[in-house]
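So, can you check?
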Amino acid sequence: INCVILPLRLALPRAGNVEVNESQYAIHLESFSHLNDLLSNRGQLTSLIIIFMAECLLCGGSSMRDEALQTGVIHSLVNLIRKVLIRGARLGAFEMNDDENHSNSRQNR
């Protein structure tokens, strides 16, 4: 069940500001790709991860729910989604270009 939240974890950089070697730098660069995948198409992949987690908990029975509560995967899911959204907002992933803003304002009238 922890594998479900792996894409969210991969979208976040490791702790610290300085990459010590090239592999850490490569992982940092890949995190931007993972972040884009999660937030593109209005966050469709992120919403599918949430739906899949809910289905696992609903269909998995009491043992699945107990495992989720004991391992804290629900808490981890919520925190990772929050961190991904914050990082996406800081990097401007939610800003629409002027054409989209203009068409949306026309539709709202």
